[in-house]
Amino acid sequence: MAMERLRKSLLVIACLTTVLFIWRGQIAGNPENCICTEMVAVESPSVLTKSSLNEQIGDSSDTYLLEKSVMATDILENVGDIWDASVDKEAYLRAKYDNFCYKPEEPYFKHVQPLERSKLKQRGCRKKLPQIIMPGARKCGTGALLRFLKIHPNITGAPEEPHFFDQRRANLTTSDYSEKMPYSTDSQLVIEKTPTYFYRPHNTPQLIKDEISSDTKIIIVLCDPVRRAVSDYLEFIWREKRRSEKHVVGKKLDSFEHLVWDHATIRGGINQLNEMIDVGIYAKHLIRWFDVFSRDQILLLDGTLLLTDPLSELKTVERFLGLRSFFQKDHFSMNEERGIFCMDFPSEYCLPGCKGRKHPHVDDKVWASLCDFYAPYDRSLEQMTGKHFSWVGKCASQDQ
Ligand SMILES: *[C@@H]1O[C@H](CO)[C@@H](O)[C@H](O)[C@H]1NC(C)=O
Ligand SMILES: *[C@@H]1O[C@H](CO)[C@@H](O)[C@H](O)[C@H]1NC(C)=O
């Protein structure tokens, strides 16, 4: 059984490696395209050495066992006592504010008004580098996850995406980075999310390890790469429209189908050089994170589950971070009208909708090609991680 799994993993990863090397060849022949520099960098040979791949495959069965044992403790935990901060609003406010650095303000994930200087000092509040980094993937629900997590009394986080590693100017130091974090005490974990880190720059994992800490915990949310690409496109359109409103230029925008299709070859196909497509090749990017951080430092979440069952994903995060269990079933309820989860405790809060971005119907042929394109990468992802993702194998119908 185990041998069979291992053999399959090897086959799939060998396949992936071949694909990447063929791809690399294509890129090398096309140097004037500006996207290419980045793509070549992404596939630096160190990433795909045989030994590192073997290591990863060897690890995946361990991860699987780890996940099972975590489930078992979860059951015990639920039988145990419940933190009063989880059920009583006064107790929540005490846990969230009595020892920490900000004035209470709704919604409670916002930390806007710090206490007076003397009080900050007295409580040991300071700005420290993030211990947890959420590098993406873009459009998979990292923003929603961050808001929920920051409700936990022991978690605080950057109010905005710092983009420290991807847009950094030469003279920006780690103290500029910590300046972007909220005040926190030693009893709080600081988290930041910047959804571009997942895929660029290619050495972000190494930079985090070298410049921040080798103990940094990484939380990566992944979701259906086909739908992710469409969401990415909608955001792109939204930004372009906003920009043209400002500059009054009436530019006609290319359709999603046009942008993701490879027009350079006669046969056509999905254009993997397009960033909207590249981000969703999760296995390829994940290898670079697995190369630098140990497997128990990286938590992978299913962005689809985050929408349909946020509690289970939040409990997974609590266990991963070693925090006392705060989130409870009755903290969340489904808003049937909008089809999203809202928080009922400690105060009512609904995630913002998708800024009015309803997914358009994608040309069926292009949709089917996208499904075919990502299927082998999704299988590699499951083999590499020993984890099943809810969207895998369910791509065929786009109107679900
Ligand atoms: C250093 O950063 C400042 C802004 O903080 C900027 O004005 C300046 O041009 C930068 N210098 C270099 C050499 O990058
Ligand atoms: C959470 O914060 C409380 C203070 O409110 C502290 O006593 C406790 O140790 C913290 N838990 C962790 C895991 O840091």
UniProtKB/TrEMBL annotation:
Gene3D superfamilies: P-loop containing nucleotide triphosphate hydrolases. Residues 130-324 form the Sulfotransferase domain. Keywords: Glycoprotein, Signal, Transferase. Residues 1-29 form the signal peptide. InterPro entries: NST/OST, P-loop_NTPase, Sulfotransferase_dom. Transmembrane segments: none annotated. This is Heparan sulfate glucosamine 3-O-sulfotransferase 3A1-like.
